[in-house]
Write a structure and sequence with these properties.
- The protein is an alpha/beta fold.
- It is built from 5 helices and 7 strands.
- The protein has a 7-stranded mixed sheet, covered by helices on one side.
- It is globular and about 45 Å long.
- The N terminus is likely disordered.
- InterPro entries: Alkaline_phosphatase_core_sf, Sulfatase_CS, Sulfatase_N.
- This is Sulfatase N-terminal domain-containing protein.
Length: about 250
């Protein structure tokens, strides 16, 4: 499938809000238990994976998001007893993308010397005829010269809208199907969380219904520098982080 750029801005009557959720895996066509579990699958499930950054459950990161569990969690799978081998960003994201432990995929920390964003391990799985879309933060060092520059697209992605470098909301660059796309500080055109959300919706609208799809949406929010959209900047001004685990 030829990769074509999707919309470039976020100003749209279709804006449906910024994506924000704990890592959630939507599987709309889940198999049921019993005899049906043994039946052969004729068509793979569609997959939507939303990965937010530093959305800490201990600090109550999901508490203000009343609709997230109903609209996303209850419609898919929520991992309530999940663990990560390392609390660092690059090793954890690499494990999500490869299904391997850090000692197997070789990413030790968030630096290039620690193998973060090294194209050498990004071989990608067989696509199995999936239409694939990625938007947002990939790995901390993505786009650097020693990591393949902005032209590097890991194998397996049809539509690629990756943030160059680490978490930013304005004044950043994207690799859009291997070509650099620079953004400024205008909310309507550049606010990253909304921009990649709307591009993911465009992908869903334009995809082929004959083939399954895999969509990975990876906003840097709520990672520092904590730049909220203008309409949300005062929403939680009086909220304090909990001092214990009683959430």
């Amino acid at each position: 499938m030829a990769a074509q750029p999707l919309g470039t801005g976020v100003s749209s009557s279709r804006r449906r809000g910024a994506s924000a959720a704990v890592t959630l895996l939507l599987l709309p066509a889940l198999l049921t238990c019993g005899v049906r579990c043994a039946e052969p699958r004729t068509k793979p499930s569609n997959i939507v994976l939303i990965v937010t950054d530093d959305q800490d459950v201990v600090l109550g990161g999901l508490n203000p998001m009343k609709k997230t569990k109903d609209l996303i969690g209850n419609a898919g799978a929520t991992f309530v007893n999940a663990f990560t081998v390392t609390p660092l960003c690059c090793p954890s994201r690499s494990s999500i993308l490869t299904g391997q432990y850090p000692h197997n995929h070789g990413v030790r920390n968030n630096s290039l010397s620690g193998n973060c964003s090294s194209p050498q391990w990004q071989k990608g799985p067989d696509k199995l005829e999936y239409q694939t879309f990625f938007a947002g933060k990939y790995l901390n060092q993505y786009g650097q010269k020693d990591a393949g520059n902005v032209g590097h697209i890991p194998p397996g992605w049809d539509h690629w809208h990756a943030l160059v470098g680490n978490s930013q909301y304005y004044n950043y660059s994207l690799s859009v199907n291997g070509k650099e796309e620079k953004h400024g500080d205008n909310y309507g055109d550049d606010y990253l969380t909304d921009l990649i959300t709307n591009r993911s919706l465009t992908f869903l609208d334009n995809r082929s219904p004959q083939l399954p799809f895999f969509l990975l949406l990876s906003p840097p929010a709520p990672h520092a520098p904590w730049t909220a959209a203008p309409q949300h900047q005062k929403d939680y001004a009086d909220i304090k982080a909990p001092r214990d685990w009683q959430l």
